[in-house]
Amino acid sequence: MHNRLSQIQPYTRAILKGHLCSSGVPYSMMDRPIIAIANSWNEIVPGHVHLRELADHIKKGVLEAGGYPLEFNTIAVCDGIAQGHDGMKYSLPSRDVIADSVETMIRAHEIFDGMVMISSCDKIVPGMLMSAARLNLPTLVFLGGVMPNYIKPKESKAARQEFLSGSLDEQGLVAVTRKYYPCAGVCPFLGTANTMQGLSEALGMALPNSSWMRALSDEQLHAAEDAGRRAVELVKKKIRVRDILTKEAFENAISVLLAMGGSLNACLHLPAIAKEIGIDLPLDAFDRISRKVPFIAAVTPNNNNFTTNDLQRAGGVPAIMKELSPLLHLDALTVTGETVKENIADAKVKDREIIHPLDAPIEAQGGIAVLKGNLAEDGALIKQSAVPEDLMAFQGKAIVFDSEEQFDEAYHNGAIQENQVVVIRYEGPKGGPGMRELHRCTEILSRYKKIALITDGRFSGASAGLSVGYMSPEAAEGGTLALVRNGDPIAIDVPNRDLTLLVDDETLEKRRKENKRTK
Protein backbone atom coordinates (compact mmCIF):
# COMPACT_ATOMS: atom_id res chain seq x y z
CA MET A 1 0.00 0.00 0.00
CA HIS A 2 1.11 3.58 -0.57
CA ASN A 3 2.00 5.47 2.58
CA ARG A 4 2.00 9.21 3.25
CA LEU A 5 5.68 9.51 2.42
CA SER A 6 5.04 8.32 -1.14
CA GLN A 7 2.78 11.34 -1.72
CA ILE A 8 5.48 13.91 -0.94
CA GLN A 9 7.29 15.64 -3.84
CA PRO A 10 10.29 13.45 -4.88
CA TYR A 11 13.18 15.77 -3.97
CA THR A 12 11.63 16.68 -0.61
CA ARG A 13 10.90 12.99 0.01
CA ALA A 14 14.50 12.02 -0.66
CA ILE A 15 15.91 14.62 1.75
CA LEU A 16 13.29 13.71 4.32
CA LYS A 17 14.23 10.03 4.09
CA GLY A 18 17.87 11.00 4.53
CA HIS A 19 17.03 12.70 7.83
CA LEU A 20 15.04 9.68 9.00
CA CYS A 21 17.98 7.42 8.16
CA SER A 22 20.12 9.69 10.36
CA SER A 23 17.69 8.95 13.19
CA GLY A 24 18.15 5.22 12.74
CA VAL A 25 15.17 4.39 10.53
CA PRO A 26 16.12 1.67 7.99
CA TYR A 27 15.67 2.88 4.41
CA SER A 28 13.98 -0.45 3.60
CA MET A 29 11.21 0.25 6.14
CA MET A 30 10.11 3.60 4.74
CA ASP A 31 7.56 2.14 2.34
CA ARG A 32 5.57 0.71 5.27
CA PRO A 33 2.71 2.60 6.98
CA ILE A 34 4.43 4.85 9.51
CA ILE A 35 2.66 4.85 12.86
CA ALA A 36 3.23 7.68 15.32
CA ILE A 37 3.57 6.58 18.94
CA ALA A 38 2.55 9.66 20.94
CA ASN A 39 3.73 8.94 24.47
CA SER A 40 3.24 10.92 27.68
CA TRP A 41 5.90 9.04 29.66
CA ASN A 42 7.85 10.81 32.39
CA GLU A 43 9.46 9.94 35.72
CA ILE A 44 7.16 12.15 37.83
CA VAL A 45 3.59 10.93 37.35
CA PRO A 46 2.67 7.48 38.78
CA GLY A 47 0.25 6.90 35.92
CA HIS A 48 3.03 7.52 33.37
CA VAL A 49 6.28 6.12 34.73
CA HIS A 50 5.66 2.76 33.01
CA LEU A 51 4.48 4.01 29.63
CA ARG A 52 7.99 3.73 28.12
CA GLU A 53 7.79 -0.03 28.59
CA LEU A 54 4.29 -0.18 27.10
CA ALA A 55 5.57 1.69 24.05
CA ASP A 56 8.06 -1.08 23.31
CA HIS A 57 5.26 -3.66 23.22
CA ILE A 58 3.10 -1.45 21.02
CA LYS A 59 6.01 -0.99 18.61
CA LYS A 60 6.45 -4.76 18.45
CA GLY A 61 2.81 -5.11 17.37
CA VAL A 62 3.19 -2.38 14.74
CA LEU A 63 6.23 -4.10 13.23
CA GLU A 64 4.50 -7.50 13.24
CA ALA A 65 1.55 -6.03 11.34
CA GLY A 66 3.77 -4.52 8.64
CA GLY A 67 4.04 -0.94 9.88
CA TYR A 68 6.95 1.07 11.23
CA PRO A 69 6.63 2.92 14.59
CA LEU A 70 8.20 6.28 15.44
CA GLU A 71 7.80 7.58 18.98
CA PHE A 72 7.69 11.11 20.38
CA ASN A 73 6.80 12.51 23.77
CA THR A 74 4.55 15.13 25.36
CA ILE A 75 4.09 16.52 28.87
CA ALA A 76 1.98 15.19 31.73
CA VAL A 77 0.99 16.93 34.99
CA CYS A 78 0.19 14.85 38.09
CA ASP A 79 -2.88 16.37 39.71
CA GLY A 80 -2.09 14.57 42.96
CA ILE A 81 1.24 16.39 43.19
CA ALA A 82 -0.20 19.68 41.87
CA GLN A 83 -2.98 19.79 44.50
CA GLY A 84 -3.21 22.44 47.17
CA HIS A 85 -0.86 25.08 45.72
CA ASP A 86 -0.39 27.34 42.70
CA GLY A 87 0.79 24.41 40.60
CA MET A 88 -2.84 23.42 40.10
CA LYS A 89 -3.34 26.56 38.01
CA TYR A 90 -1.28 24.83 35.31
CA SER A 91 -3.17 21.56 35.27
CA LEU A 92 -6.23 22.30 33.13
CA PRO A 93 -4.31 24.56 30.70
CA SER A 94 -1.84 21.69 30.19
CA ARG A 95 -4.59 19.85 28.30
CA ASP A 96 -4.36 22.35 25.46
CA VAL A 97 -0.54 22.30 25.52
CA ILE A 98 -0.71 18.52 25.06
CA ALA A 99 -3.23 18.77 22.22
CA ASP A 100 -1.14 21.44 20.49
CA SER A 101 2.13 19.55 20.94
CA VAL A 102 0.80 16.33 19.41
CA GLU A 103 -0.77 18.27 16.55
CA THR A 104 2.53 20.08 16.01
CA MET A 105 4.58 16.87 15.84
CA ILE A 106 2.18 15.24 13.39
CA ARG A 107 1.49 18.19 11.12
CA ALA A 108 5.04 19.54 11.08
CA HIS A 109 6.51 16.29 9.82
CA GLU A 110 3.66 15.05 7.57
CA ILE A 111 4.99 11.48 7.43
CA PHE A 112 2.52 9.61 9.62
CA ASP A 113 -0.21 7.29 8.35
CA GLY A 114 -1.70 6.43 11.73
CA MET A 115 -1.18 6.91 15.44
CA VAL A 116 -1.25 5.18 18.83
CA MET A 117 -1.61 7.57 21.76
CA ILE A 118 -0.21 6.15 25.02
CA SER A 119 -1.76 7.99 27.89
CA SER A 120 -3.39 8.01 31.29
CA CYS A 121 -4.43 10.59 33.91
CA ASP A 122 -6.58 13.65 34.10
CA LYS A 123 -5.72 16.15 31.33
CA ILE A 124 -3.50 13.96 29.21
CA VAL A 125 -6.13 11.56 27.87
CA PRO A 126 -8.53 14.36 26.83
CA GLY A 127 -5.66 16.46 25.45
CA MET A 128 -4.58 13.60 23.23
CA LEU A 129 -8.15 12.90 22.14
CA MET A 130 -8.55 16.57 21.22
CA SER A 131 -5.51 16.36 18.96
CA ALA A 132 -6.73 13.06 17.50
CA ALA A 133 -10.02 14.72 16.59
CA ARG A 134 -8.17 17.60 14.90
CA LEU A 135 -5.80 15.38 12.93
CA ASN A 136 -8.35 12.72 11.89
CA LEU A 137 -5.77 10.02 11.25
CA PRO A 138 -6.45 6.31 11.85
CA THR A 139 -5.82 6.40 15.61
CA LEU A 140 -6.37 4.48 18.80
CA VAL A 141 -5.66 5.26 22.45
CA PHE A 142 -3.74 2.83 24.61
CA LEU A 143 -4.28 3.47 28.30
CA GLY A 144 -1.84 3.23 31.19
CA GLY A 145 -4.13 1.12 33.37
CA VAL A 146 -4.53 1.05 37.14
CA MET A 147 -2.19 0.42 40.06
CA PRO A 148 -3.32 -2.21 42.59
CA ASN A 149 -4.56 -1.15 46.01
CA TYR A 150 -3.56 -3.15 49.07
CA ILE A 151 -5.95 -1.34 51.41
CA LYS A 152 -9.52 -0.13 50.95
CA PRO A 153 -10.27 3.50 50.07
CA LYS A 154 -11.86 4.12 53.47
CA GLU A 155 -8.54 3.27 55.18
CA SER A 156 -6.69 5.83 53.05
CA LYS A 157 -9.35 8.47 53.71
CA ALA A 158 -9.27 7.76 57.44
CA ALA A 159 -5.49 8.24 57.53
CA ARG A 160 -5.81 11.61 55.80
CA GLN A 161 -8.36 12.75 58.38
CA GLU A 162 -6.09 11.55 61.18
CA PHE A 163 -3.27 13.65 59.74
CA LEU A 164 -5.53 16.72 59.50
CA SER A 165 -6.54 16.26 63.14
CA GLY A 166 -2.92 15.86 64.24
CA SER A 167 -3.15 12.23 65.38
CA LEU A 168 -0.97 10.89 62.54
CA ASP A 169 2.39 12.29 61.48
CA GLU A 170 3.79 12.76 57.96
CA GLN A 171 5.70 9.50 57.90
CA GLY A 172 2.61 7.62 59.04
CA LEU A 173 0.45 9.15 56.32
CA VAL A 174 3.04 8.40 53.65
CA ALA A 175 3.21 4.77 54.84
CA VAL A 176 -0.56 4.35 54.50
CA THR A 177 -0.62 6.18 51.17
CA ARG A 178 2.01 3.80 49.77
CA LYS A 179 -0.35 0.90 50.44
CA TYR A 180 -3.11 2.64 48.50
CA TYR A 181 -0.77 4.03 45.80
CA PRO A 182 1.90 1.29 45.77
CA CYS A 183 3.42 1.48 42.29
CA ALA A 184 3.03 2.53 38.65
CA GLY A 185 -0.44 3.01 37.23
CA VAL A 186 -3.37 5.34 37.66
CA CYS A 187 -4.53 5.91 41.25
CA PRO A 188 -7.24 3.30 41.87
CA PHE A 189 -10.25 5.51 42.67
CA LEU A 190 -12.73 6.70 40.05
CA GLY A 191 -11.21 10.15 39.68
CA THR A 192 -10.81 12.04 36.45
CA ALA A 193 -7.93 9.79 35.37
CA ASN A 194 -9.89 6.54 35.55
CA THR A 195 -13.02 8.28 34.31
CA MET A 196 -11.28 9.42 31.14
CA GLN A 197 -9.63 6.03 30.67
CA GLY A 198 -13.08 4.42 30.80
CA LEU A 199 -14.64 7.04 28.54
CA SER A 200 -11.93 6.51 25.92
CA GLU A 201 -13.21 2.95 25.65
CA ALA A 202 -16.85 4.03 25.76
CA LEU A 203 -16.18 6.45 22.90
CA GLY A 204 -14.80 3.56 20.85
CA MET A 205 -11.24 4.96 20.79
CA ALA A 206 -9.63 2.29 23.00
CA LEU A 207 -9.72 -1.50 22.77
CA PRO A 208 -12.46 -3.29 24.75
CA ASN A 209 -11.62 -4.01 28.37
CA SER A 210 -8.35 -2.01 28.23
CA SER A 211 -9.40 0.93 30.44
CA TRP A 212 -8.60 -0.44 33.87
CA MET A 213 -6.16 -3.29 33.26
CA ARG A 214 -3.54 -3.74 35.97
CA ALA A 215 -0.52 -1.67 34.96
CA LEU A 216 2.29 -3.80 33.48
CA SER A 217 0.33 -7.03 33.94
CA ASP A 218 0.80 -9.77 31.34
CA GLU A 219 -2.73 -8.96 30.18
CA GLN A 220 -1.80 -5.34 29.55
CA LEU A 221 1.48 -6.12 27.79
CA HIS A 222 -0.27 -8.51 25.40
CA ALA A 223 -2.98 -5.88 24.82
CA ALA A 224 -0.27 -3.33 24.00
CA GLU A 225 1.06 -5.55 21.23
CA ASP A 226 -2.47 -6.01 19.94
CA ALA A 227 -2.93 -2.20 19.94
CA GLY A 228 0.10 -1.87 17.67
CA ARG A 229 -1.33 -4.42 15.25
CA ARG A 230 -4.75 -2.77 15.35
CA ALA A 231 -3.26 0.62 14.49
CA VAL A 232 -1.88 -0.77 11.24
CA GLU A 233 -5.24 -2.41 10.51
CA LEU A 234 -7.00 0.94 10.99
CA VAL A 235 -4.70 2.43 8.35
CA LYS A 236 -5.36 -0.43 5.94
CA LYS A 237 -9.13 -0.19 6.47
CA LYS A 238 -8.99 3.63 6.26
CA ILE A 239 -10.94 4.02 9.52
CA ARG A 240 -10.30 7.53 10.82
CA VAL A 241 -11.06 9.23 14.12
CA ARG A 242 -14.12 11.09 12.86
CA ASP A 243 -15.64 7.81 11.69
CA ILE A 244 -15.65 6.83 15.36
CA LEU A 245 -16.15 10.11 17.26
CA THR A 246 -19.75 10.78 16.24
CA LYS A 247 -22.54 12.42 18.21
CA GLU A 248 -23.77 8.92 19.06
CA ALA A 249 -20.34 7.96 20.43
CA PHE A 250 -20.31 10.99 22.73
CA GLU A 251 -23.79 10.17 23.99
CA ASN A 252 -22.62 6.63 24.73
CA ALA A 253 -19.70 8.03 26.70
CA ILE A 254 -21.96 10.37 28.68
CA SER A 255 -24.22 7.42 29.51
CA VAL A 256 -21.27 5.41 30.86
CA LEU A 257 -20.04 8.47 32.78
CA LEU A 258 -23.40 8.87 34.48
CA ALA A 259 -23.95 5.16 35.10
CA MET A 260 -20.71 4.91 37.10
CA GLY A 261 -20.78 8.35 38.76
CA GLY A 262 -17.55 9.47 37.09
CA SER A 263 -15.65 12.71 37.47
CA LEU A 264 -17.32 16.07 36.90
CA ASN A 265 -14.24 17.06 34.91
CA ALA A 266 -15.55 14.87 32.10
CA CYS A 267 -18.18 17.58 31.59
CA LEU A 268 -15.29 19.85 30.57
CA HIS A 269 -13.35 17.30 28.57
CA LEU A 270 -16.01 15.60 26.46
CA PRO A 271 -17.36 18.93 25.11
CA ALA A 272 -13.79 20.07 24.36
CA ILE A 273 -13.10 16.91 22.34
CA ALA A 274 -16.46 17.18 20.58
CA LYS A 275 -15.83 20.83 19.72
CA GLU A 276 -12.78 19.82 17.67
CA ILE A 277 -15.18 18.02 15.32
CA GLY A 278 -17.94 20.63 15.41
CA ILE A 279 -20.25 18.67 17.72
CA ASP A 280 -22.00 20.71 20.42
CA LEU A 281 -22.29 19.08 23.87
CA PRO A 282 -23.89 21.63 26.23
CA LEU A 283 -24.23 20.98 29.95
CA ASP A 284 -27.94 20.47 29.43
CA ALA A 285 -27.14 17.33 27.42
CA PHE A 286 -25.49 15.78 30.49
CA ASP A 287 -28.51 16.59 32.65
CA ARG A 288 -30.96 15.33 30.03
CA ILE A 289 -29.19 11.99 29.75
CA SER A 290 -28.76 11.79 33.54
CA ARG A 291 -32.55 11.78 33.94
CA LYS A 292 -32.87 8.58 31.91
CA VAL A 293 -29.59 6.73 32.61
CA PRO A 294 -29.51 5.28 36.14
CA PHE A 295 -26.54 5.04 38.48
CA ILE A 296 -25.59 1.34 38.46
CA ALA A 297 -21.88 1.03 39.35
CA ALA A 298 -20.51 2.51 42.58
CA VAL A 299 -16.82 2.62 43.47
CA THR A 300 -14.89 5.22 45.42
CA PRO A 301 -15.68 8.12 45.89
CA ASN A 302 -19.28 6.92 45.49
CA ASN A 303 -18.63 3.78 47.58
CA ASN A 304 -15.53 3.58 49.76
CA ASN A 305 -15.43 -0.22 49.80
CA PHE A 306 -14.51 -0.63 46.12
CA THR A 307 -12.06 0.77 43.56
CA THR A 308 -11.71 0.60 39.80
CA ASN A 309 -9.78 -2.64 40.29
CA ASP A 310 -13.06 -4.09 41.54
CA LEU A 311 -14.93 -2.50 38.64
CA GLN A 312 -12.55 -4.17 36.18
CA ARG A 313 -12.97 -7.48 38.01
CA ALA A 314 -16.73 -7.12 37.65
CA GLY A 315 -16.44 -6.88 33.87
CA GLY A 316 -15.14 -3.36 33.21
CA VAL A 317 -16.50 -0.99 30.59
CA PRO A 318 -17.88 -3.78 28.34
CA ALA A 319 -20.03 -5.10 31.20
CA ILE A 320 -21.31 -1.61 32.05
CA MET A 321 -22.16 -1.00 28.39
CA LYS A 322 -23.82 -4.42 28.10
CA GLU A 323 -26.05 -3.53 31.04
CA LEU A 324 -26.80 -0.13 29.51
CA SER A 325 -27.31 -1.52 26.00
CA PRO A 326 -31.04 -0.60 25.74
CA LEU A 327 -29.98 3.03 26.26
CA LEU A 328 -26.93 3.10 23.96
CA HIS A 329 -26.23 3.63 20.27
CA LEU A 330 -25.08 0.09 19.57
CA ASP A 331 -24.22 0.66 15.92
CA ALA A 332 -21.44 3.16 16.75
CA LEU A 333 -18.11 2.19 15.15
CA THR A 334 -15.00 1.51 17.27
CA VAL A 335 -11.25 1.05 16.78
CA THR A 336 -11.74 -2.72 16.52
CA GLY A 337 -13.40 -2.06 13.17
CA GLU A 338 -16.60 -3.43 14.70
CA THR A 339 -19.59 -1.79 16.38
CA VAL A 340 -20.31 -1.39 20.07
CA LYS A 341 -22.91 -4.16 19.75
CA GLU A 342 -20.33 -6.56 18.34
CA ASN A 343 -17.70 -5.60 20.93
CA ILE A 344 -19.97 -6.24 23.94
CA ALA A 345 -21.76 -9.32 22.58
CA ASP A 346 -19.96 -11.67 24.97
CA ALA A 347 -19.58 -9.23 27.89
CA LYS A 348 -20.90 -10.38 31.27
CA VAL A 349 -21.36 -8.76 34.67
CA LYS A 350 -19.27 -10.86 37.05
CA ASP A 351 -20.20 -9.17 40.33
CA ARG A 352 -23.65 -7.72 40.92
CA GLU A 353 -22.48 -6.02 44.11
CA ILE A 354 -20.36 -3.79 41.85
CA ILE A 355 -22.46 -3.45 38.67
CA HIS A 356 -26.18 -3.48 39.42
CA PRO A 357 -28.94 -4.49 36.99
CA LEU A 358 -30.51 -1.76 34.89
CA ASP A 359 -33.93 -2.54 36.40
CA ALA A 360 -32.58 -2.46 39.98
CA PRO A 361 -30.13 0.48 40.00
CA ILE A 362 -28.43 2.11 42.95
CA GLU A 363 -30.19 5.36 42.03
CA ALA A 364 -32.79 6.04 39.35
CA GLN A 365 -30.78 8.93 37.91
CA GLY A 366 -27.18 9.22 36.77
CA GLY A 367 -24.30 10.32 38.97
CA ILE A 368 -24.12 13.96 37.78
CA ALA A 369 -26.66 16.77 37.94
CA VAL A 370 -26.67 20.29 36.49
CA LEU A 371 -28.00 22.95 38.88
CA LYS A 372 -29.26 26.36 37.82
CA GLY A 373 -30.56 29.45 39.55
CA ASN A 374 -29.60 33.06 40.16
CA LEU A 375 -26.18 31.88 41.41
CA ALA A 376 -25.45 29.98 38.20
CA GLU A 377 -27.61 31.12 35.32
CA ASP A 378 -25.59 29.03 32.86
CA GLY A 379 -25.28 26.05 35.15
CA ALA A 380 -23.19 24.42 37.87
CA LEU A 381 -22.21 20.78 38.39
CA ILE A 382 -22.56 18.37 41.28
CA LYS A 383 -21.76 14.68 41.62
CA GLN A 384 -25.12 13.73 43.11
CA SER A 385 -24.06 10.09 43.48
CA ALA A 386 -21.56 11.17 46.18
CA VAL A 387 -23.93 13.42 48.16
CA PRO A 388 -25.38 12.01 51.42
CA GLU A 389 -29.16 11.67 51.30
CA ASP A 390 -29.70 14.16 54.14
CA LEU A 391 -27.80 16.86 52.23
CA MET A 392 -29.67 16.63 48.92
CA ALA A 393 -31.66 19.70 49.99
CA PHE A 394 -29.72 22.16 52.13
CA GLN A 395 -29.87 25.79 53.21
CA GLY A 396 -27.20 27.67 55.09
CA LYS A 397 -25.49 31.03 55.52
CA ALA A 398 -22.56 31.88 53.29
CA ILE A 399 -18.99 32.28 54.44
CA VAL A 400 -17.10 33.80 51.52
CA PHE A 401 -13.49 33.46 50.35
CA ASP A 402 -11.83 34.92 47.27
CA SER A 403 -9.26 32.12 46.93
CA GLU A 404 -8.37 28.64 48.14
CA GLU A 405 -5.62 30.19 50.28
CA GLN A 406 -8.13 32.41 52.13
CA PHE A 407 -10.27 29.37 52.87
CA ASP A 408 -7.30 27.38 54.14
CA GLU A 409 -6.29 30.19 56.51
CA ALA A 410 -9.86 30.50 57.83
CA TYR A 411 -10.05 26.75 58.45
CA HIS A 412 -6.85 26.74 60.47
CA ASN A 413 -8.18 29.72 62.46
CA GLY A 414 -11.37 27.83 63.34
CA ALA A 415 -13.72 30.01 61.26
CA ILE A 416 -15.49 27.13 59.46
CA GLN A 417 -18.61 25.87 61.23
CA GLU A 418 -21.39 23.36 60.65
CA ASN A 419 -24.43 24.45 58.59
CA GLN A 420 -22.44 26.97 56.55
CA VAL A 421 -22.27 27.29 52.78
CA VAL A 422 -18.59 27.79 52.02
CA VAL A 423 -18.15 30.00 48.94
CA ILE A 424 -14.74 29.93 47.23
CA ARG A 425 -14.75 32.24 44.22
CA TYR A 426 -12.33 33.76 41.70
CA GLU A 427 -11.01 30.25 41.07
CA GLY A 428 -12.58 29.88 37.60
CA PRO A 429 -10.73 29.77 34.26
CA LYS A 430 -10.28 33.55 34.21
CA GLY A 431 -10.37 34.34 37.91
CA GLY A 432 -7.82 31.72 39.03
CA PRO A 433 -6.51 31.86 36.44
CA GLY A 434 -6.49 28.22 35.39
CA MET A 435 -9.56 26.84 37.22
CA ARG A 436 -7.87 24.95 40.04
CA GLU A 437 -9.27 21.76 41.52
CA LEU A 438 -10.27 22.36 45.13
CA HIS A 439 -9.92 18.76 46.27
CA ARG A 440 -7.97 19.69 49.38
CA CYS A 441 -10.90 21.90 50.40
CA THR A 442 -13.41 19.08 49.96
CA GLU A 443 -11.17 16.77 52.02
CA ILE A 444 -11.11 19.33 54.84
CA LEU A 445 -14.87 19.84 54.70
CA SER A 446 -15.55 16.09 54.83
CA ARG A 447 -14.86 16.37 58.58
CA TYR A 448 -18.13 18.29 58.96
CA LYS A 449 -21.53 16.56 58.94
CA LYS A 450 -23.69 19.37 57.54
CA ILE A 451 -21.87 21.77 55.26
CA ALA A 452 -21.80 22.75 51.59
CA LEU A 453 -19.19 24.12 49.20
CA ILE A 454 -19.92 26.16 46.09
CA THR A 455 -17.23 27.46 43.75
CA ASP A 456 -16.42 28.55 40.22
CA GLY A 457 -13.37 26.29 40.48
CA ARG A 458 -13.26 22.57 39.77
CA PHE A 459 -13.21 19.39 41.83
CA SER A 460 -11.11 16.27 41.67
CA GLY A 461 -12.98 13.17 40.61
CA ALA A 462 -12.23 11.92 44.14
CA SER A 463 -14.26 14.73 45.73
CA ALA A 464 -17.55 13.98 47.46
CA GLY A 465 -20.15 15.61 49.69
CA LEU A 466 -22.39 18.59 48.90
CA SER A 467 -19.84 20.17 46.57
CA VAL A 468 -21.15 22.37 43.76
CA GLY A 469 -18.62 23.68 41.27
CA TYR A 470 -17.87 24.81 37.70
CA MET A 471 -20.30 27.70 38.30
CA SER A 472 -21.05 29.75 35.22
CA PRO A 473 -20.75 32.68 34.80
CA GLU A 474 -17.71 32.67 37.07
CA ALA A 475 -17.17 35.51 39.55
CA ALA A 476 -14.46 37.13 37.43
CA GLU A 477 -16.92 37.36 34.53
CA GLY A 478 -19.49 39.19 36.65
CA GLY A 479 -21.46 36.15 37.79
CA THR A 480 -23.74 36.51 40.79
CA LEU A 481 -21.20 34.52 42.80
CA ALA A 482 -19.15 37.75 42.96
CA LEU A 483 -22.01 39.45 44.84
CA VAL A 484 -22.38 36.97 47.70
CA ARG A 485 -21.53 38.32 51.16
CA ASN A 486 -20.96 36.65 54.52
CA GLY A 487 -24.26 35.67 56.12
CA ASP A 488 -26.30 35.54 52.90
CA PRO A 489 -28.67 32.56 52.87
CA ILE A 490 -28.13 30.08 50.03
CA ALA A 491 -30.46 27.22 49.12
CA ILE A 492 -29.26 24.10 47.29
CA ASP A 493 -31.90 21.65 46.04
CA VAL A 494 -30.28 18.81 44.08
CA PRO A 495 -33.45 16.85 43.17
CA ASN A 496 -35.02 20.02 41.76
CA ARG A 497 -31.74 21.17 40.20
CA ASP A 498 -31.88 24.55 41.96
CA LEU A 499 -29.10 26.81 43.31
CA THR A 500 -30.39 30.11 44.69
CA LEU A 501 -28.94 33.06 46.56
CA LEU A 502 -31.84 34.19 48.76
CA VAL A 503 -31.19 37.91 48.37
CA ASP A 504 -33.62 40.25 46.60
CA ASP A 505 -32.87 41.62 43.14
CA GLU A 506 -32.70 45.23 44.29
CA THR A 507 -29.96 44.43 46.80
CA LEU A 508 -28.04 42.39 44.24
CA GLU A 509 -28.20 45.21 41.69
CA LYS A 510 -26.85 47.66 44.25
CA ARG A 511 -23.98 45.30 45.05
CA ARG A 512 -23.29 44.85 41.34
CA LYS A 513 -22.78 48.59 40.91
CA GLU A 514 -20.49 48.68 43.93
CA ASN A 515 -18.43 45.69 42.85
CA LYS A 516 -15.20 47.05 41.38
CA ARG A 517 -13.47 43.70 40.87
CA THR A 518 -15.59 42.61 37.89
CA LYS A 519 -16.09 46.01 36.24
UniProtKB/TrEMBL annotation:
Q: What is its EC number?
A: 4.2.1.9
Q: Which GO terms describe its molecular function?
A: 2 iron, 2 sulfur cluster binding; dihydroxy-acid dehydratase activity; metal ion binding
- Reactions catalysed: (2R)-2,3-dihydroxy-3-methylbutanoate = 3-methyl-2-oxobutanoate + H2O
**Which co-factor is required?**
[2Fe-2S] cluster; Mg(2+)
InterPro entries per the UniProt record, alphabetical: Dihydro-acid_dehy_C, DihydroxyA_deHydtase, DiOHA_6PGluconate_deHydtase_CS, ILV_EDD_C, ILV_EDD_N, IlvD/EDD_N
| GO CC annotations on file | cytosol
Domain Dihydroxy-acid/6-phosphogluconate dehydratase C-terminal span(s) in chain numbering:
353-516
An individual GO BP term? isoleucine biosynthetic process
The keyword Flavoprotein is assigned to this record: no
Q: Which range is the signal sequence, renumbered to this chain? A: none
Query: Keyword set for this entry?
Result: 2Fe-2S, Amino-acid biosynthesis, Branched-chain amino acid biosynthesis, Iron, Iron-sulfur, Lyase, Magnesium, Metal-binding
Pathway note:
Amino-acid biosynthesis; L-valine biosynthesis; L-valine from pyruvate: step 3/4; Amino-acid biosynthesis; L-isoleucine biosynthesis; L-isoleucine from 2-oxobutanoate: step 3/4
Ranges where the Dihydroxy-acid/6-phosphogluconate dehydratase N-terminal domain occurs? 32-343
Membership in a protein family: Belongs to the IlvD/Edd family.
What protein name applies here? Dihydroxy-acid dehydratase
